[in-house]
């Protein structure tokens, strides 16, 4: 029995691809690349196990965070409209798929890509180019658009019957929804909000990060998805939770070297990259009280702060107004 790796995001197109491949009598393994930017909000990478399942299919979760960080900082083909290095991203994912093909003794790779669905990477020429660069030439099947693409080796060799494949193109989802009904797929996610790397707001946070840090870690990137961000100085940056869920989540993260906790007031939980100057702790306290339930400017509050695993209390008086906050909000 021939084995196929189906690259899956969990969206409708990849669910269809899993099912179309199973219908051909193939041994199907789903492959899900996980990284700090594409896992659901408030999930950590360690929340995912290596082996999983999706709709009854075996699924391998592959953490690509470290390699992806390098790719994001130095994309060979540049960025799209924000900081989305889509062409490099696709080549990278397919190269990893080629390595996995050898490791898992698979015969080819399939994806749910549809011609014309995304301008940058899913036009025919670029699809061909990406396939070639990844080393998967001939071994990459896109069953949803196969009839408008050149026949692949799995089709030519008869591992997959080309007559069972489709010629879908464009950005609409109607054909896929009809196909889902035909294949008995009742539950599938509505179109996702898209990749966070394509968001302009995220680009602003990313640019601030690379402007101020020479060496960027996965933790530095991961935290860009959460909280309000304040640039206090080139070396001092504060992130505060916007609500209870975010406050709780920030407490799980290992970013920064200083924790400031006002959640008992109630108020935000803050994480900070701190250079040791008391001046910036004062600035951080002003910001945190500003976003707390404290109202009186006469009030004095004891802040628990944790630095190098040791906790102590620091006092702060008054609730600052906007003009007293000496920091740039990184939108
Ligand atoms: S949208 Fe995001 S995940 Fe998709 S190719 Fe571009 S960078 Fe990669």
What do you see in this structure?
This protein folds into 2 domains: 3-182, HUPs (Rossmann fold, 3-Layer(aba) Sandwich), CATH 3.40.50; 226-330, no CATH class. It is 31% helix and 20% strand. It is built from 10 helices and 13 strands. Helix 4 links the parallel strand 5 and strand 6. The termini are far apart. The structure holds iron/sulfur cluster. The site of iron/sulfur cluster has 9 residues, from helix 3.
Q: Which SSEs are present, and which pair or pack?
A:
Blueprint: E1 3-7, H1 12-23, E2 27-34, E3 51-54, E4 57-63, H2 65-73, H3 86-103, E5 108-111, H4 124-134, E6 140-141, H5 153-156, H6 174-182, H7 200-212, H8 218-222, E7 228-231, E8 237-240, H9 244-250, E9 258-261, E10 269-273, H10 278-290, E11 300-307, E12 310-317, E13 328-330
Parallel strand pairs: 1-2, 1-5, 2-4, 5-6
Antiparallel strand pairs: 3-4, 7-8, 7-13, 8-10, 9-10, 9-11, 11-12
Helix pairs in contact: 3-4
Bound molecules: iron/sulfur cluster.
């Amino acid at each position: 029995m021939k084995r196929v790796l189906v690259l899956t995001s969990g969206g409708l197109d990849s669910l269809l691809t899993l099912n179309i491949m199973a219908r051909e009598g193939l041994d199907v393994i789903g492959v899900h690349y996980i990284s700090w930017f594409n896992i659901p909000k408030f999930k950590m990478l360690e929340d995912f196990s290596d082996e999983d399942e999706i709709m009854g299919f075996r699924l391998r979760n592959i953490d690509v965070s470290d390699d992806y960080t390098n790719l994001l900082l130095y994309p060979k083909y540049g960025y799209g409209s924000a900081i989305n290095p889509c062409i490099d991203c696709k080549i990278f994912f397919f190269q990893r798929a080629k390595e996995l093909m050898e490791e898992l003794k698979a015969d080819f790779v399939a994806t749910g890509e549809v011609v014309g669905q995304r301008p940058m990477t899913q036009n025919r020429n670029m699809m061909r180019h990406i396939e070639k660069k990844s080393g998967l030439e001939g071994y990459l099947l896109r069953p949803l658009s196969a009839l408008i693409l050149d026949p692949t080796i799995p089709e030519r060799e008869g591992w997959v019957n080309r007559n069972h494949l489709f010629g879908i193109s464009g950005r609409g989802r109607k054909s896929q929804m009809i196909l889902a009904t035909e294949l008995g797929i009742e539950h599938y996610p509505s179109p996702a909000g898209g990749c966070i790397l394509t968001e302009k707001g995220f680009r602003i946070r990313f640019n601030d990060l690379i402007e101020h840090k020479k060496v960027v870690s996965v933790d530095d990137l991961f935290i860009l998805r959460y909280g309000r961000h304040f640039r206090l100085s080139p070396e001092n940056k504060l992130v505060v939770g916007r609500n209870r869920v975010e406050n709780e989540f920030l407490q799980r993260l290992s970013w920064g070297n200083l924790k400031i906790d006002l959640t008992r007031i109630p108020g935000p939980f803050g994480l900070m990259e701190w250079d040791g100057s008391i001046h910036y702790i004062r600035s951080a306290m002003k910001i945190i009280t500003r976003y707390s339930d404290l109202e009186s400017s006469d009030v004095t509050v004891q802040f628990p702060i944790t630095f190098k695993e040791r906790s102590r209390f620091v006092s702060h008086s008054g609730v600052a107004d906007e003009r007293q906050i000496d920091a740039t909000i990184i939108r």
